[in-house]
Amino acid sequence: MKAILYVGHGTRSKKGENEAKAFLQKVMAKVDTPIQEISFLELSSPSIDEGFQRCVERGATEVSVVPILLLTAGHMKHDIPAELAAIQTRHPQIPITLQQAFGVQENILDAIAELVRENVLDLTSEDSILIVGRGSSDPEIHTAFSEIEKGIQERLCVARISSCYLAAAEPKFHDGLEVMLEEATQRVIVIPYLLFSGLLLSEVILWCKKRGPKVIQIDPLSRHKVMEDVVVQIATEGTKHDAILNG
């Protein structure tokens, strides 16, 4: 019997954890698979190992792992595969398929543009946009954010757009915001490229409030319904480049 194991990042924020679980409950209601479980890579429970064990206890004979990650970086390339490899050695009879992260998709970029327009009804070409990512030491992250910048620029046609990061990459959020404020002639629209609430989003909210009315911060991405659709599609159809751990 097929099972789906969703793997979120995890957070120390109870609000963020509850948001992730509520989001995934909505996804699970749309996916016609008998066994579905939620797990987290770190900081929240249940763990990947615990979630997998629940799948086994419910009769799973194969498990598709769906990472709830926006982009491919260290967690996707190393941490989750390492966890699953250890699990696979304990359950060699159960095939494990690891699906891909969301990646830069046109429908996600469309959703971001809609969130901006909903929050800034009088958006003009003189406004500027700052995209704030979680950050990673993986160089592919910069490539991805260049694509995201280009896609948002094409959709919103603002004066300037740039990206910054909350950890593990440059420029840092505080520096990126200050530079943008110095260069911007009108408002700065801050887009947190994050799915849920959490300590990182709290940092963004705090700094945006400190900088006053010239800075407008947009909601995290999971506020748009299309993000549920993205996960449903991955869960039901898989991805083009699945990594089959056992062979």
TrEMBL record:
This is Sirohydrochlorin chelatase. Signal peptide: none annotated. The keyword tRNA processing does not apply. It comes from Bacillus yapensis. It comes from the Bacteria. Keywords: Lyase, Metal-binding. Pfam families: CbiX (PF01903). GO terms for molecular function: lyase activity; metal ion binding. The lineage of its organism: Bacteria, Bacillati, Bacillota, Bacilli, Bacillales.
